[in-house]
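As the next step, I selected for study one protein, both as residues and as discrete backbone shape codes, as given directly below:
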Amino acid sequence: MEPLLDIVSAPGRSRAPRWRALAPHGSVAGVAGLWPVSPFGLDFLLPTAPVTRPGAAELRVYVEPRWRRRGVGSRLLTTVREQTAVPCLVSYVAVGSPGERFYTRHGFSHTRFWHHELLTYRDVHQAWLGELVDAEHPGYRLAHWTGDLLGAPRVEDLLRSPSRPGNAVLTVADADGDVAAYVAAVVGAPSRRRAHLYGPVVLPGHRGRRLSRWVNAALIQRLHEVHPQVTEIETAGAGDDPRLLATRRHLGFRPLRRTSVYELWDGGTS
């Protein structure tokens, strides 16, 4: 352990707690922080989030290379647990990385693998994509919404609100006014070339009708129209969902990386 290190709170622009491990002379040896598990804190995206349990928070710990194996990460983790009352900590770690050993050693349970995939627009045949979008799905119609994702709205509320310029695109399969399936993509700052896709979600009673592929294809097409600067779309999904993985492969997504999901419940492993 490094007794000379000071673990201090490091408030930032967001309300999420952050900490720094300060070495002598003020250099930063490591950092830790908590983030919402669901993207942007939006409940309607939770069906595709790695963890859906109430109260969970994502933990990120980073230690500068020259300070590793000296107890810095352990002290940061101890501080997080002492100064917060989060019932479940969740961490996403690259498969085969030292982070897996770190979280296992500190009592985290490995709960699943998460597959990240990437679609590049230059590999998409636009005419083929258009055929997928134009394919008939009797009883359903496509609807789109664009804007900024703020607060925690429902999909239905977003569709009833007017579209406007913003960081998000939502595509829905509508069945006589009821949401049957949906998928969303979020873009960062205007200079960023990569969007992040969440979904799709197909509601019970509408499954088995290829709505997943339909709304995905329509979103890919619509996103390029609204945000032409985007050249890539990244998405993620559980490794035990073969239908979702097959849909994304069909649309042109390719494997990017795999991460392991680790969880620690207050008082012990999950």
